[in-house]
């Protein structure tokens, strides 16, 4: 079932997205060498609750935390641990909120201290890939148009696209139909109409595309041990084009 959201509903989804965008912006000043990941999670949870919302990931299919924090070769779904961030790492931080029954979902990858040019470029290209995907989120276009745009940009830069995890519809559930893969063929798959809300979330690897799930049952890691980046925006597809609902005060 693919929902068509009214302007009233999109407004609430936008408020939920604003909370997650503000959460990541708030966290950005703490993402430094020596910070404990668990402390970032506590800060995020307190902030979301203070906004009158609820952390959407906590308890979802048994997930234990407010944030997913995925370091270097962790692609997504890293569980915040007692470990400390270290200089030179890149960390994907993914956050979801639920406000009045409506969800927002947003992720950014952050540099911890001084990050080498290779990692920096992976972050830039992954964010560019997301933005190119978002440009395709217009009524009449197809799910495959987004996947094609994301994949083309990532592969043109020599990177690979994770296949096992995909973007998704979002609204009164965190994950709704349709699935939004980060690879695809133009004019293929579900056709967009105005009022759809989707989360687009490319996971781009510097090495090979293959991933596996860690012993903890959640963390997704690259098989070759090379680094991966992840950005995600919640987008409303309106008659006049894509509206990015999770844009905070800063870009990313
Ligand atoms: N943005 C991620 C996703 O859409 C977050 C879900 S993680 C979970 O898959 F912990 F909530 F499962
Ligand atoms: Co998502």
Quick rundown:
The protein has a single domain, classed as Creatine Amidinohydrolase (Alpha-Beta Complex). The chain has four helices and 15 strands.
Helix and strand topology:
Layout: H1 7-28, H2 37-50, E1 54-55, E2 67-71, E3 74-76, E4 90-99, E5 102-111, H3 117-135, H4 143-156, E6 160-161, E7 167-169, E8 176-180, E9 196-200, E10 203-205, E11 211-213, E12 220-222, E13 228-230, E14 233-238, E15 241-244
Antiparallel strand pairs: 1-4, 2-4, 3-12, 4-5, 6-10, 7-8, 7-9, 9-14, 10-13, 11-12, 14-15
Helix pairs in contact: 1-2, 3-4
2-amino-4-trifluoromethylsulfanyl-butyric acid binds at residues 57, 60-61, 63, 68, 77, 94, 96, 105, 107, 168, 201, 232.
What does it look like?
The structure is a single chain. The protein is of the alpha+beta class and 252 residues long. The chain has one domain (7-244): Creatinase/methionine aminopeptidase superfamily (Creatine Amidinohydrolase). The protein contains 4 helices and 15 strands. The strands form 4 sheets. It has a 5-stranded antiparallel beta sheet with strand order 8-7-9-14-15. Helix 3 (117-135) packs antiparallel against helix 4 (143-156). It is globular and about 45 Å long. The model has no long low-confidence stretch (mean pLDDT 97). The structure holds 2-amino-4-trifluoromethylsulfanyl-butyric acid and cobalt (II) ion (CO). 2-amino-4-trifluoromethylsulfanyl-butyric acid binds at residues 57, 60-61, 63, 68, 77, 94, 96, 105, 107, 168, 201, 232.
């Amino acid at each position: 079932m693919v929902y068509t959201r009214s302007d009233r509903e999109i407004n609430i989804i936008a408020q939920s997205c604003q909370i997650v965008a503000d959460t990541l912006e708030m966290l950005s000043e703490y993402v430094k060498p020596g910070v404990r990941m668990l402390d970032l999670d506590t800060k995020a949870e307190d902030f979301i609750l203070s906004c009158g919302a609820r952390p959407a990931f906590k308890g979802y299919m048994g997930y234990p935390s407010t944030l997913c924090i995925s370091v270097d070769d962790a692609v997504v779904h890293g569980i915040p641990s007692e470990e400390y961030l270290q200089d030179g790492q890149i960390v994907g931080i993914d956050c979801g909120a639920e406000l009045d029954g409506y969800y927002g979902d947003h992720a950014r990858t952050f540099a911890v201290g001084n990050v080498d040019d290779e990692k920096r470029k992976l972050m830039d290209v992954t964010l560019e890939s997301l933005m190119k995907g978002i440009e395709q989120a217009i009524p009449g276009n197809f799910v495959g148009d987004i996947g094609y745009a994301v994949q083309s940009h990532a592969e043109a830069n020599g990177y690979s696209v994770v296949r096992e995890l995909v973007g998704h519809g979002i609204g009164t559930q965190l994950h709704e139909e349709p699935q939004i893969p980060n690879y695809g063929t133009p004019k293929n798959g579900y056709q967009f109409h105005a009022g759809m809300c989707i989360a687009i979330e490319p996971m781009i690897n510097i090495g090979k595309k293959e991933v596996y799930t860690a012993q903890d049952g959640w963390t997704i890691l690259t098989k070759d041990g090379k680094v991966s980046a992840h950005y995600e925006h919640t987008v409303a597809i309106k008659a006049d084009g894509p509206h990015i609902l999770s844009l905070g005060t800063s870009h990313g």
